[in-house]
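Teaching note: in complex prediction, the entire set of molecules is handled at once rather than each chain in isolation. The prompt given to students was simply: 'Predict the structure of this complex.' The entities are:
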Amino acid sequence: MHDHALAEQSDALRLRSLDDLNRLRKQILDKRDPDQPEIVVCHGTGCLANGSADVSAAIRSALDASGIEAKVVPGIKTTGCQGFCSHGPLVVIRPRGIFYQKVKPKDAKEIIEKTIVQGDVVKRLLYKNPTDGEKILHEQDIPFYKRQTRVVLHNIGKIDPTDISDTIASGGYQALAKALTTMTPEQVVQEIETSGLRGRGGAGFPTGRKWRSALTAIEKKGRPVYVVVNGDEGDPGAFMDRTIMEGDPHAVLEGLILGAYALGANQGYLYVRAEYPLAIKHLTIAMEQARAYGLLGDNILNSGFSFDARINRGAGAFVCGESTALFTSIEGNPGNPRPKYVRSVEEGLWGRPTVLNNVETWANIPLIVNKGGDWYAKIGVPHSTGTKVFSLVGKVNNVGLVEVPMGVPLSTIVEDIGGGVPGGAPFKAVQTGGPSGGCIPYELKDTPVDFDSLTKAGSMMGSGAMIVMDNRDCVVDVGRYFLRFLEEESCGKCMPCRLGLSRMREILDNFSEGKGSEKDIEDLLSLSKAIQDSALCALGSSAPNPVLTTLKYFKDEYLAHVTRQKCPAGVCKNLITYSIDPELCTGCTSCAKQCPVGCIEGEKKKPHAIDTGLCIRCGICMDTCKFNAVNVI
Amino acid sequence: MSDNALYIDEMMDQYPAKPESLIVILQEIQNKYGFISGDAMRLASEHVHVPLTQAYAVATFYQSFRLDPVGEHEIKVCLGTACHLKGGQRLVEDLERRLHVESGGTTEDMRFTLNTVNCVGACALAPVVSVDNQYHPNATAKKMEKVLKSLTDPSLEEMEGTGNA
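The expected output is the structure of the full assembly:
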């Protein structure tokens, strides 16, 4: 296409006012028939990994082959993550809201023939409630969804993230148009202050206060000033930011543009970890579309305000989630943090005033501008307003993304929505806040989940990862895991973090081998205190949290390792022995075939036995056995 | 000028000749060749006007950069918390035994590179192993054995339940 044709085309799309946006929205909605079936296939990373791309392809071709009259040809939409990852690939038939789970490509024909053509339901694809065995027909009746309050996630699973008209139809960019045409930048900041929104990245710093201090810094220093999205999400076990970027990229972008308008920034950055290729792709598409529609770039909606943004891919460093490290990384340097005696709002990117907010925080901004700070402040609890998205993983039935108002009890999330631990036993602990957070034991299951209550319990909100553990998980092992992670991810610049974490990990290594003494527990405590007090950045100062909380709530388990050389959960290799239960063993030989050292012997169809002298305790026999015949003590 | 140098030169022209472009340029080089060679590093550092030592400082700080050639197939075992709880570490050890290579290394015949990653954000499917950027959800030693076999002998049927990463 020639340049002028391109220019003409983009000119035709360009929106010049709030009226333009509303007109376009009406056009899109008018074209839609509310009764037309819509087959929605989840294309979140979880479902994709389970083969949902093949499912949507099969549905497409089954639809083509069905020869349904053009009038009722249903659309197929591929959406971002619908959150119920453990039951993917998910397919929802709208407008009826029929919810199919664990769909395979071979089910496609039946879905089209039965549900779309005849209006019947394919019963075997429905979700079965584990508590009463009842099959549930509608998405909204499934307990996992029923107890949630989906505010930030309201679009995800409904819109096609690669098509801006879907976003516009569902009310996207309304907040931006409202702000640009009816609000001053100061009014935008005030709404955010009224909302009480606290940063969703972990520390929970009030967003309004951050923006306000940036304005003060700008008064002193002048421009340029930058706005930045922290999409690094290095927390292992967290994927809410990934889901928002993949499933509703325009919400993040709209929030960022609103922030830029409020602060007078003309340039923004989205720092997204390279491990999230789909998020990067969808954000790139969203930015191109927003530019074409005049919602990003020069003279947005003819308001005179110009702002553009670009994506920086992270390069695999956890510490780059820390603000000062993230800035040095965008500048092209190793991601070393600096002490924060000067705050980032004063000296951030290239030494300029910079507002850095996490993905979920930015995605909240359009909602607040649209519905008002007062509306937002009413959700949740005082001092922790709004909702929070959690990624619920580990030993829990309904693994997935959960959005609830701040302040709900932990048990609501883990037991009511998450469906509890497989097998029905109470959970042992929930690790919240990732490697910097702590373990909350079952006894504290009624703890309200908000910033301050979690801190009081010795943990923290963090980015919102919740890792559920059962009695097969060892707290010493979990502590070692987080310490090893943080030791590897430490930038190594300050000594408390570099040497302190290594020493703590060495002590836990000894524990896992049945070595060490009670005196070592005291050393762990004093080392923790020293690191908390003296580390350069939050990676170090929060690193001892998992060890401190597990020591507080599960000291007996530590003592069992040290004084009795036992690992009660059956995890620490040097302290366990595998055996085969002859009652349960069917002699299928599959464990013997998998055993890497050949220490399992026995006749076919007769009970097998493990030679514990040769056994390297790799656990493969236990993973392989279908009859639960392998025990560990 | 060699083909490689030509590609790198053309690619780098898309980015401003400033230090802030260094990371993305190194990422592009690695995407194309799987690793960053000494020559490529020199070209990148000259383009963005930073000393070669600075370019190495960046490349060695970030975990995702590699300075050695990779094998034909890249296996990444996720060691996020959920994967750890569900036996991710055991999978790493098993693959190390099967491939006779330590995590982070490449087999002598240059067929396989084994790595661990911190979290791919697919925690519902833990433990996850990605092979040549295809996710294998709920991985077990047995499943991985089949995957390795299918890579050694591509005539074997493709594994069920995999998708693009």
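Point out the following to students. The longest strand of chain B covers residues 73-78. Confidence is low (pLDDT under 50) at residues 157-165 of chain B.
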